[in-house]
């Protein structure tokens, strides 16, 4: 099993990513407040960069297979900043799904190991859904 070393930079990165998700959620709850959503985006992107490293982040976002997701996420961020948060969030959501679709199987395994929530994800109908997409990238 691979060990995941948790140094201070990665802890700060995970914290920034969490705060980014939280501020984005608050921005949606408060009727698509563009300031909160923009703050959430900045925190999320900086958290990802700190967690996996700047070089790895650039390689991930500039990979040829991730262009569609990167452009969509960037355009969504631009629309949020200029004052069209609903359109921006739709584009960002699409970009997020395209960019991180390869991580869904890993997330499914992680969720199955959580004590209470894991029971739900270990049920046969849910497990068969995740097993169908394990190891495959969803074509978009």
Automatic annotation (TrEMBL):
It is found in: Golgi apparatus membrane. It comes from the Eukaryota. Its main location: Golgi. InterPro entries: Got1, Vesicle_transpt_Got1/SFT2. The keyword Cytoplasm does not apply. The chain crosses the membrane at residues 12-32, 38-58, 70-87. GO terms for cellular component: cytosol; Golgi membrane. Keywords: Golgi apparatus, Membrane, Transmembrane, Transmembrane helix. It is a multi-pass membrane protein. GO terms for biological process: endoplasmic reticulum to Golgi vesicle-mediated transport; retrograde transport, endosome to Golgi. The keyword Protein transport does not apply. Belongs to the GOT1 family. This is Vesicle transport protein got1b. It comes from Nicotiana attenuata.
